[in-house]
Inverse folding.
């Protein structure tokens, strides 16, 4: 019981104001960013539909289709091989893999010529750009005797010179018999696949043979002769696979003078055959 004169203690309880977090939080920013991105994609789609022809839209659709390794209809693209643009109104898509007329119209002439040209006597074939040929080469592995593990022996790149295809040894899996120009079954399958791709164009082909730095002992036969013999063996298989003999621009043996692995001259990676599908505007 409180005594007279005692004063009670006053307790003030303050409540925190609520409801402001929803306005000052960051969740709405994420939703707004998603909305803006979706609207940008929508307007870009509308612009593409208005700026392209039916054939060009088909080419774009096939380019982004993961089930189609090579777009059948494509206008090529600008770049080192100065392919025709997909936005050129007069780009004529034909059967085969993307390209335009061998003789472009005056409107597209400034776009440059394709890096690869078709057989003039076979007008139903489409010209292949170098990038398209590279994709075609890799895509044909499923239609040939080449298995996926065999592709470890393959390296491709598109350069100013053309499409470069390197077929090289992997540790424990040589492509030629040791010290011999006799190709293994794996090498034959790879060369036949290269030949099938190269037969689709009329570009010149250059073949180079390379070895590692392992020396020969006596007999007057060395890495120069071995690299040359291997290059000629590759040439014969390519010709048998459909490459016209007159398209072979040069066959050279470079021994161990241009190793792929400069720090290790004995690396199996240095033992290789290099096949170059040359640009059509390069001289032999």
């Amino acid at each position: 019981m409180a005594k007279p004169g005692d004063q009670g203690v006053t307790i003030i309880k303050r409540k925190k104001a609520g409801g402001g977090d929803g306005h000052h939080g960051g969740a709405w920013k994420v939703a707004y960013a998603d909305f803006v991105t979706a609207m940008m994609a929508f307007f870009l789609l509308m612009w593409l539909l208005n700026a392209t022809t039916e054939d060009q839209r088909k080419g774009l659709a096939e380019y982004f289709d993961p089930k189609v390794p090579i777009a059948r209809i494509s206008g090529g693209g600008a770049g080192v091989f100065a392919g025709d643009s997909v936005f050129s109104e007069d780009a004529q898509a034909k059967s085969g893999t993307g390209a335009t007329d061998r003789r472009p119209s005056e409107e597209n002439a400034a776009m440059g010529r394709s890096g690869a040209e078709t057989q003039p006597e076979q007008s139903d074939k489409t010209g292949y750009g170098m990038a398209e040929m590279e994709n075609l080469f890799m895509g044909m592995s499923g239609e040939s005797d080449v298995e996926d593990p065999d592709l470890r022996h393959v390296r491709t790149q598109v350069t100013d010179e053309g499409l470069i295809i390197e077929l090289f040894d992997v540790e424990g899996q040589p492509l030629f018999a040791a010290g011999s120009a006799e190709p293994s079954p794996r090498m034959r399958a790879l060369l036949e696949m290269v030949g099938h791709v190269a037969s689709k164009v009329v570009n010149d082909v250059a073949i180079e043979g390379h070895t590692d730095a392992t020396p020969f002992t006596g007999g007057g036969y060395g890495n120069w002769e071995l690299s040359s013999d291997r290059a000629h063996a590759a040439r014969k298989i390519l010709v048998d696979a459909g490459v016209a003999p007159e398209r072979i621009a040069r066959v050279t043996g470079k021994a161990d003078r241009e190793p792929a692995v400069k720090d290790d001259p004995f690396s199996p990676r240095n033992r290789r055959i290099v096949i170059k599908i040359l640009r059509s505007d390069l001289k032999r």
In short: The radius of gyration is 31 Å. The beta strands are 154-158, 162-168, 205-210, 248-253, 272-278. The chain has two domains: 52-127, 130-278.
